[in-house]
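Lab notebook, bench 4. The sequencing result for the construct came back, and we need a structural model before the next group meeting so we can plan mutations. Quick request posted to the team channel:

Model the 3D structure of this chain.
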Amino acid sequence: MNIAIVGTGYVGLVTGVCFAEMGVDVWCVDVDKSKIDALERGIIPIYEEGLKEIFDKNYKDGRVHFTTDLSAIIDNVDIVFIAVGTPPDEDGSADVKYVLDVARTFGQSIKKYTLLVTKSTVPVGTSQKVKEVVISELSKRGENIPFDIASNPEFLKEGSATKDFMTPDRVIVGVESEKAKELMSRLYRPLLLNKFRVIFMDIPSAEMTKYVANSMLATRISFMNEVAALCEKTGADVSLVRQGIAADTRIGNKFLYPGCGYGGSCFPKDVKALIKTASDNGLLMKIISAVDEVNNNQKKILYNKLNIALNGVENRVIAVWGLSFKPGTDDIREAPALTLIDQLLENGADIRVFDPIAIDRVRERYGDKIYYASSMVDAAKGADAAALVTEWKQFRLPDWQEIRNTMRGNVIVDGRNIYDPQEMFSYGFNYYSIGR
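Done. Here's the predicted structure in token form:
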């Protein structure tokens, strides 16, 4: 089978490379010529564990191709996936102009039956708009070429995206014809053979499923962050509370870790988009609106703890450990570390940062305003305090005695609760965590 993936960002590139690994012939399409040129030289624009190895293998085997012109290769493919960005507007709604641009090119270019699949995260009703754009373009050409639309939202977790794609807990496919269902079933047959769940439904339900899934996970995070705040006030330990409620099989243990807030390209954007979709339909979603508010406040918690512990941060040296929004990725979009750095800069602190992967992304944002360390210990040199923001595995068992000797002060703020309070106290640290 031959397919095209329009958009070579995080979703598009992972999707294209993983389909190639399944034996599909894939064209990766992007209007950014510099990005396509880099991909043809074997340079991928994102960090994702295992992706480069799969990319290199399938590029060498000739199953991955690159172009800036969808119309030039559209006759050679059976399915076109839309995987372009849908950045949030100021009102929180998802901007689908790039999605509709692809639909426009599709309608201007097809000469035979082709299936157009939206993989970008889009509000309910977007696929219908895509269909209308294609029909309009065909009408302008005086053509009546058959086509179908479908929705196939992604559920990839950054840091484990290739594994998620190859061994998914479910694949959601929205269709409106048997022909589209048959084509998508052929494409996902390797997963069906391995008994992974491919769930077919109508298109609006597929579009809604993506937003609701991420909003549910975000809700669990914000709920536990509120519980953590209450635990601090009452003397309870949120880590023990979490164990207690997670033992209930109706609740389980996923996404119940309190911390310094969620970030990334999905949760913040999708929560806001769901709120906006509800508003556009005359509904106020009180719970999910509170989830967004709690998370915005939670991102400030590390600064507040540092400010109290140090009696002000002006002229203080602060080490920040971890900059990406989560381990396993270089993505810093909506990362809690950025909120912390911004607050520290605004209040006159000197900042030393370290991250094993994302440090260059942060350098692009802050330039020479902060110091970029080569290690945890380097970041801690002369620091009055250190804040753990992203729980990279290599941060879990540092040499605390070396760090204590390196620091000027003794304040450690643990934004992910990965350290043992008694151990930290034994090294002479003034240790703060979340909800303990």
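The chain has a mean pLDDT of 95.
Will bring this to the meeting.
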